[in-house]
Amino acid sequence: xxxxxxxxxxxxxxxxxxxxxxxxxxxxxxxxxxxxxxxxxxxxxxxxxxxxxxxxxxxxxxxxxxxxxxxxxxxxxxxxxxxxxxxxxxxxxxxxxxxxxxxxxxxxxxxxxxxxxxxxxxxxxxxxxxxxxxxxxxxxxxxxxxxxxxxxxxxxxxxxxxxxxxxxxxxxxxxxxxxxxxxxxxxxxxxxxxxxxxxxxxxxxxxxxxxxxxxxxxxxxxxxxxxxxxxxxxxxxxxxxxxxxxxxxxxxxxxxxxxxxxxxxxxxxxxxxxxxxxxxxxxxxxxxxxxxxxxxxxxxxxxxxxxxxxxxxxxxxxxxxxxxxxxxxxxxxxxxxxxxxxxxxxxxxxxxxxxxxxxxxxxxxxxxxxxxxxxxxxxxxxxxxxxxxxxxxxxxxxxxxxxxxxxxxxxxxxxxxxxxxxxxxxxxxxxxxxxxxxxxxxxxxxxxxxxxxxxxxxxxxxxxxxxxxxxxxxxxxxxxx
Length: 481
Fold this sequence. Notes:
The protein has helices spanning 50-60, 101-109, 113-121, 130-140, 142-147, 154-163, 173-176, 191-197, 230-238, 290-300, 304-313, 352-376, 394-404, 416-430, 451-472, and strands at residues 10-16, 20-27, 33-40, 46-47, 67-74, 80-82, 92-93, 150-152, 170-172, 182-183, 188-189, 207-209, 216-217, 223-224, 228-229, 244-249, 253-256, 271-274, 280-286, 322-324, 341-343, 383-387, 408-411, 444-447. By secondary structure, the protein is of the alpha/beta class.
């Protein structure tokens, strides 16, 4: 096959997310999407990795003919454990499995405390991270832990399956930086932290490849790129520059931007990840994003369109209702056992319209707190790029500029993680120093807040922070106008 990407070469990108596998096939030079596929994953917070392969096979059926290279973007943090024969030891624990919350708290307080962890690996352990799941396994399933010969991330496992038998697993620094035992600043594993968390065990870890370094080839000759984590792949798709910050509204909510220097936040609010280009990706994450909207719509007995109509019919501020949307616990702030809370309920504001709008405002306020957090760690915020399923909500688009306090751009609808994985595959195929430029083909729609909207958004955000202080004792960090 060609060593460089020629005109007409096709590349494929895979997004193996929590809920499904999405695939896009793109022109390697332009990024134009020529084919797409999708297949569902089983629900839950743990899953047999074989389900991902089944979904991959279903989603790519008939789509990979003529494809020269493929890359995998995967949900971060999940723990895939293999024995010395390469068989799965136990179902993979996913990022949103919070059973390791106690283990996370223990690890955070050990080995010098949160500040030492942040300095060592860029992040403070929380229940999402692989290292905390390994501690949980060591304590609760020691016999299974003794069988573990290798630990992979979800995207690592899929890449390994693509490469075929006998090829050692690989990863990239972006996804590795979400494990809790890889230092983005030093670009190396911290095996001492792995052994400490896993009861003295040091299973084999995948080799960390460079941004454009190929992982190898499939048995039928298709080049396989290193792959990366889902947030890193989305950043690749959007070709982030200075001042760009992504707010992604999927199952989880994420806020991230690209930086030239690593972050180390001892509070744990900002994870100091690496990106997929050799730079860094400071990121704040919430467990509660688009599902807040779908759950509220279900409670109100309406579909998404009906929910948007209700939310848009209410006045800004939801008549005084404030929702803390911690429906599945929360990661930012770190409240794994929390539940949702509704403040300010009165007979006069007990309407479907106000409840719908309070769900939108509450979800966005959680992400606005993340936006402030990455701003404090050196990320300049000139504009927000709003992506993910929740970004298609008309109510979210209307409210977001006021709550975020900056212009909001909504990129053209695309599977950004899959597109980013495809762009990485094109980069590896071309063997060039820089990835191909695709973003010029994507139109962006601008929504800029007015002065009145900024003032109202500020009031909404302050009510959210004050309610959080009352309910959870977290001091309200009042944002300046």
